[in-house]
Design a protein that fits this description.
With 558 residues, this protein is α/β, with parallel strands linked by helices. It folds into 2 domains: 160 residues, P-loop containing nucleotide triphosphate hydrolases (Rossmann fold, 3-Layer(aba) Sandwich); 276 residues, ABC transporter involved in vitamin B12 uptake, BtuC. The chain has 17 helices and 11 strands. A hairpin with a 2-residue loop joins strand 1 and strand 2. The longest helix has 33 residues. It is elongated, with a radius of gyration of 26 Å.
Length: 558
């Protein structure tokens, strides 16, 4: 493997690896009037280098320039001494795992990896299976890729990159969509590849992941080098703002390997992740339960209301042509917009259908159609790739003992609890709550008692849609935003409502928490791809013992 001489600045500069195999020399890239990279100089050597930065920092542009997918307008890129745009032979020694979907639908994982191997005319026919085994996908090798979860598709792309045994491996957000156990396995794999002497470049916007993964760190902001260094220390280049060194671990731990995490600590951490997931599910399940309680409608479009909230916050805060508002303000406006969407659906669709005496079965079919229309509209508008909010991306986990989350995740947990308490107060201590319970018990009797039933239903739709939108915002903050995030959560919403007891608001919250904890903790023992199945097994077990759900009321038939 050829090794280039270090940059003239010398190896004392933390942006330059001492044994560089990949060199970026004064590179600028622009698209029309937009500058994506500006006079960037750095290098990468054997081992794992983390490339950090928020969305729009230039990480993907740099990776595409490194692999020759786009030309540079100024400067030079060299991979083991070769120009990736001019010398095709270098592509046999390097591989890219792109962030966007790069796996054709209709192929199995084995067919796709073998196709990549055939493109590179690899003589070893066992190489595809070896690559799939390395990423833990051999058992699913004969399944179609379009049936995979996001985490499985990510691992399939990594296998396709590893099949040609590259010297340089470029990974653009490879942990997106992976469950906690998958993340640990992938991080271990990337570290092992770096230890073998390969140059592994991994981009991410999550500081806590890179802390566990990378030996060196390069931070980009607005297409420029913002900081660089060898973990656990990093320096901001002189002349940018000031020269700063800050530890990514406590000073007492610097230079020491991370001790083995005990089973208790791992399960405790997964339980806290489950509580956060459960609270997010509770936002959508509350709205679903409220709407069902006052109208009897099973709303299959509830998941799309979740997606709407996440996408609305992204449009307002991060989307390029958007207003670029702060994320907190964008989240508040997204929740308000979700309430307005619920108002529009009630006034423009469901109220007219009820007045026409449309039956519940027909209304359920309408909600299914509405879900399909909205989900495909989202796909057309934002595409199929996961999206990240631009703010609060570089955070490290904090908390007592094994119970650690990033500050943004703690904020999601706290805000969700506050919203649940506010909802409970409104239902128990206000005239609206009394009217809602009356309408839920007997709409005709409530109407004859002077309660404005249609107004109660309208307020419930607004509140239920706003709660679902808040769940979408929280899910986007905790993970990512995508066009199908609501579809993926829909069954969990129904499971939470049924498990807690249909028609009981507090039951929906309890069911959501139980579903969240079970799904996350189960990944300690089983493949994370099967975690939702465990949640439904718990649901079935509870219903066999208590058919009305945990907090539901037993009904007499006959």
């Amino acid at each position: 493997m050829a090794v280039l001489e270090p940059h003239p600045n010398g190896t004392d500069d933390p942006a330059f690896a001492p044994d560089a195999t990949v060199v970026v020399d004064d590179v600028s890239v622009w698209f029309g009037q937009k500058v994506a990279l500006s006079e960037l100089s750095c290098s990468f050597g054997p081992g794992v280098t983390g490339l950090l930065g928020p969305n729009g920092a230039g990480k993907t542009t740099l990776m595409r320039a490194l692999t020759g997918l786009i030309p540079v307008n100024q400067g030079n890129v060299r991979i083991e001494g070769s120009d990736p745009r001019r010398e095709r032979a270098v592509h046999a020694r390097m591989a890219l795992v792109p962030e966007d979907e790069a796996v054709p639908a209709g192929l199995t994982a084995r067919q796709f990896v073998r196709y990549i191997a055939d493109l590179h005319q690899l003589p070893d026919r066992a190489a595809p299976d070896d690559a799939l085994r390395t990423v833990g996908m051999l058992d699913a090798a004969d399944r179609r890729v379009d049936t995979f979860s996001k985490g499985m598709r990510q691992r399939t792309k990594v296998a396709a990159a590893l099949v040609k045994d590259p010297h340089v491996l470029v990974l653009d957000e490879p942990l997106n969509g992976a469950d906690p156990v998958q993340r640990v396995n992938l991080i271990t794999l990337f570290k092992d590849l770096g230890a073998q002497g390969r140059t592994v470049i991994v981009s991410s916007h999550v500081l806590s992941e890179v802390e566990r993964l990378a030996e060196r760190l390069i931070v980009l902001m607005h297409g420029r080098l913002a900081a660089a260094g060898i973990a656990p220390f990093m320096a901001v280049p002189p002349g940018t703002v000031t020269f700063v060194i800050f530890p990514l671990v406590p000073p007492s731990e610097a230079g020491h390997t991370t001790p083995h995490t005990s089973a208790f600590d791992q399960i405790a951490g997964l339980s806290l992740d489950g509580i956060e997931l459960g609270l997010i599910i509770a936002m959508g399940a509350l709205g679903l339960s409220l709407i069902f309680g006052v109208t009897g409608l099973v709303n299959f479009a509830q998941g799309e209301l979740v997606t709407f909230g996440g996408l609305a916050a992204w449009w307002l805060s991060t989307w390029g042509p958007g207003p670029g508002l702060p994320l907190i303000l964008s989240g508040v406006l997204a929740v308000a917009a979700g309430g307005l969407l619920g108002c529009g659906l009630e006034l423009g669709m469901f109220r007219p259908l009820r007045r026409r005496r449309t039956g519940n079965v027909a209304l359920i079919v309408v909600t299914i159609g509405l879900s399909l229309v909205l989900s495909n509209l989202y796909l057309i508008m934002v595409g199929g790739n996961p999206l990240q909010y631009a703010e609060y991306v570089l955070q490290t986990e904090v908390g007592p003992g094994p119970f650690t989350l990033t500050p943004k995740d703690w904020t999601v947990v706290a805000t969700s609890i506050v919203l649940i308490l506010i909802t409970g107060f409104l239902l128990q201590r206000t005239r609206y709550g009394t009217a809602l319970r009356a309408v839920s018990d007997n709409p005709d009797l409530a109407s004859s008692s002077g309660i404005a039933v249609e107004r109660v239903i309208l307020i419930t739709w607004i509140g239920g849609a706003a709660l679902a939108a808040s769940g979408g915002v929280f899910l986007g903050i905790a993970t990512a935003v995508s066009w199908d995030m609501g579809l993926e959560m829909l069954l969990l919403l129904f499971a939470a409502v049924i498990l807690g007891g249909i028609g009981t608001v507090y039951g929906a919250v309890l069911g959501a928490l139980l579903i969240g904890i079970v799904t996350q903790v189960s990944t300690y023992w089983i493949n994370p791809e099967a975690k939702n199945a465990v949640a439904f097994l718990v649901l079935i077990g509870v219903l066999l013992v208590r058919p009305q759900g945990i907090l539901g009321r037993r009904e007499r038939v006959g």
